Amino acid sequence: MGQTGPVAPTDEPAGHEDPLTAPPPASSGVESGPARMPRWLPRAMVLALALYACFQLGDWAFHQLVGLLINILIAFFVALAIEPAVGRMAAHGMRRGLATFLVFMAVLAVGIGFVVLLGSMLAGQIVEMVEDFPKYLDQVINWINQTFRTELSRVEVQDSLLNSDWLRRYVQNSATGVLDVSATVLGGLFQFLTIFLFSFYFAADGPRLRRALCSVLPPARQAEVLRAWEIAVDKTGGYIYSRGLMALISGVAHYILLWILDVPYAPALAVWVGLVSQFIPTIGTYLAGALPMLIAFTVNPWYALWVLGFVVVYQQFENYVLQPKLTAKTVAIHPAVAFGSVVAGTALMGAVGALIAIPAIATLQAFLGAYVKRYAVTDDPRVHGGHQRRRGTSALVRLRRTLHQEPREEARDEPRKGQAPPSSDDDA
């Protein structure tokens, strides 16, 4: 009694305890709960969301203000264009505000006078063309009948035109588009006033604007900004000068043609062709030539073909002879670069980009040319479009040697005179 029986042996190794009956391990000071979020992650998420919201807000604001930004850009280039005239008047003691106002009034008076003169001319010509339309139609129908041996009549052509579906749709679209045209006119007037006000402030307060811009820059940067501003004024003024000179030459050339053909309103048409062809790039020449062709058609239908041929020929002369010389002296930009800049400006900003592309590229090219380091070009024929000569004998010399060597080899192979030819086994 009081003694315990023998303990049965177990297969478990020494020191191994049953997990169910083993006591819990001692706490080591490290919590064994689920993994917690890093402290920097919420801040990073909030910062990313804030940046995305700012980007969306900036994108929306830019698209809403893109029209205003384009108007400001146009006004800036207009101010650069009139800066030389305003500067000269201010140098003689006149206030810049008054000088800017006088320059703008002169430009505005010329523009309004030209538009009024052209509008009265167009109104009279349109009325005359409507009254003489049956006569023109008879001439065209008679020419078609004589040329192609047809039997058309004016009554049938008029009935087919008046009863056509496309004419009805055109009248309906024109009636519904009156409000759109009015809105477009009002929007254009507001845009013109915006450009006028900004360009007036840029030109009148040019020194103050430059001073305010330079006040936030270090002295070294101030010199670069002033140099860029001066280059922009020179290049923009040079562009306007070259375009004005080419407009004058174009107007005189077309006036001579219209005077020879006895086309009415020849001076106004010549001014129209000169201005539109030069200040509307790429397609301006053909748009300008359409109106003289229409007026010449009222005099004689064949005169319209003469005007068309002259416009095409003069355009080629201007592109390949006149424009490169004037552009090299005023804007100093290659014609291919000018054409590419106009295409790029049109793709980016439409007609506005086409107008300001050339002075902008000329300014950028001149500004970069002042800081790009250039080296002397090596005297290599390939620079001038030639080919480098190979070292050694030329191909012509080698050909001559070959021709001289062939007769010598033939003479060497022939048997000498007085010497028997070598014997062979067959002869033996």
UniProtKB/TrEMBL annotation:
Signal peptide start and end residues: none
Membrane topology reported for the UniProt record: Multi-pass membrane protein
Region listing for Disordered, in residue ranges: 1-34, 401-428
Key words, A-Z: Cell membrane, Membrane, Transmembrane, Transmembrane helix, Transport
The keyword Membrane is assigned to this record: yes
Residue stretches spanning the membrane: 68-86, 98-123, 181-203, 244-261, 267-287, 294-317, 337-364
Record's compositionally biased regions (Basic and acidic residues): 403-417
One Pfam family in the UniProt entry: AI-2E_transport
Intracellular or extracellular location(s): Cell membrane
Family: Belongs to the autoinducer-2 exporter (AI-2E) (TC 2.A.86) family.
Protein name: AI-2E family transporter
Source organism of the structure: Streptomyces enissocaesilis
